[in-house]
Design a protein that fits this description.
By secondary structure, the protein is of the alpha/beta class. The protein has 11 helices and 9 strands. It folds into 2 domains: 193 residues, 2-enoyl-CoA Hydratase, Chain A, domain 1; 48 residues, Orthogonal Bundle (Lyase 2-enoyl-coa Hydratase, Chain  A, domain 2), CATH 1.10.12. 49% of the residues lie in helices and 16% in strands. The protein has a 6-stranded mixed sheet, with helices on both faces. A 3-stranded parallel sheet has the order 4-6-8. Helix 1 packs parallel to helix 3, helix 4 packs across helix 5 and helix 9 packs antiparallel against helix 10. The relative contact order is 0.11.
Amino acid sequence: MTVELSYFEEFAVIRLNRPEALNALSFAIIRELDVVIEEVATSNARAALIIGEGEKSFCAGADIKELMGRSISEQKQGAELGQRVFHKLSLLPMPTVAIINGFAFGGGLELALACTFRLATENARMALPEIKLGLIPGYGGTQRLPRVVGESRALELIMTGRVVKPEEAERIGLVNRVIKGDPLDSGASFAREFSGFGMLALGYAREAVQRALDLPVSEGLKVEADLSTLAYQTEDAAEGMEAFVAKRNPEFKDY
C-alpha cells in the first residue's frame, strides 16, 4: 500500500509513501486514500494527521503522465474521483491536520485544503500550478482556496500558479502555523490543543463555521443557535460547566 495508516496516542496518521515520485497522486493512490479514510472514520482517533514520506514533499500533485491522452469522459471521471475522496476527507468526524513537509503542488495542496487545519515546515512550498499546463485545479482547489484565503488572493494564486513560501502562507491564512523540528511531533503537539475537548462540541463548532461560508449572516445565526442548543443537551456540556464551577478539569465522554 502506498497510503499507510497507523495510530499513535489518540491520533490516526495517514502517510503518503511514494517518496521516489515526491508522493504524487495517481488514481490508484487516490483510491487507496479512499479506503483509508473510511477506516479512519470508524476509528476512535480524536484527530487525523496527514503527512508525506520523506523531507522533500508532502504531495507533488497529480501524476501528469497518467493524465495524458484520456478521453473527455475519463477526464471528468478522474476529477470527480478526486473531488469525492477529498470531500469524504473533509467530512471525517474528527479534525484533520495536513502536515505540509516540502512540496504541496496541485492535487497535493488540494488534499491539504480539504483538511481542517494545515501546518507547514520551513521548507514547505505550496502552489496550484495547473495554469502553467493549460489547465485549472480539478480536485476542489477553485472552491476551497477562496474560502481559506479570500477570492482575490485565490484568483491570483490560481491564475499565476506561483509558489507560496511558509511565511506568506501563514500571513494569508493558507496555513495555520509554520512549524519547526520533527513534523509529525509538531503536528501531534498542535492536535493536542483540541483533542482533549469533547468531539461533539468540536464537530458542532466546525459545522457552524463551515456552513457560515455558504449562508447569509441571518441564516448562519439560525444554524449557530440550533447547534449551540444541541451542544447544551450533551452530557459533555453538563460535565464542562460542572467542572468549571468546581474548579477542576472536565472529563469529556463524547456524548
